[in-house]
Amino acid sequence: QVQFVESGGGLVHPGGSLRLSCAFSGLSSAYHALAWLRQVPGKDREAVACISGFGTKDTYVGSGRFTIARDYDKNMLYLQMNGLEPEDTATYYCAASASGLCDKYPYLGQGTQVTVSS
């Protein structure tokens, strides 16, 4: 059973930083792609960043403000978010693909709320 425990969300002022963490377990190999997704109520969930099973990183939002990282020894996934903007307010989810590719993510955590507000 794949499990995720996300942490690190909270309330931050515009321009501030947060580091999200995700402890995961139950993946059959180290070669699943891992990602951060986010969702705002009433909108579709969107991919924020992904590390493929081959180690390549892609960031889809944030204009260079977000950095994804994975600790293979500790089974941890991180998302460093700098220069946060109110538009970054969302629930952020840790996710895994069924393959090494950053495409579909059938495995999803419970989410951690990030609120950017003055």
What's the SSE blueprint?
Blueprint: E1 3-7, E2 10-12, E3 18-25, E4 34-39, E5 46-51, E6 57-59, E7 66-71, E8 76-81, E9 90-96, E10 107-108, E11 112-116
Parallel strand pairs: 2-11
Antiparallel strand pairs: 1-3, 3-8, 4-5, 4-9, 5-6, 7-8, 9-10, 9-11
Order of helices and strands: EEEEEEEEEEE
Radius of gyration: 13 Å
How many DSSP E strands? 11
How does the overall form come out from the CA principal axes? Answer: globular
The rounded distance between the terminal residues' Cα atoms is 40 Å
Largest sheet: 7 strands, mixed
Explained architecture:
By secondary structure, this protein is mainly β. The protein contains no helices and eleven strands. The chain has strands spanning 3-7, 10-12, 18-25, 34-39, 46-51, 57-59, 66-71, 76-81, 90-96, 107-108, 112-116. Strands 2, 4, 5, 6, 9, 10 and 11 form a seven-stranded mixed beta sheet that branches. It has a four-stranded antiparallel beta sheet with strand order 1-3-8-7, with no helix packed on it. A hairpin with a 5-residue loop joins strand 5 (46-51) and strand 6 (57-59). It is globular, with a radius of gyration of 13 Å. The model has no long low-confidence stretch (mean pLDDT 95).
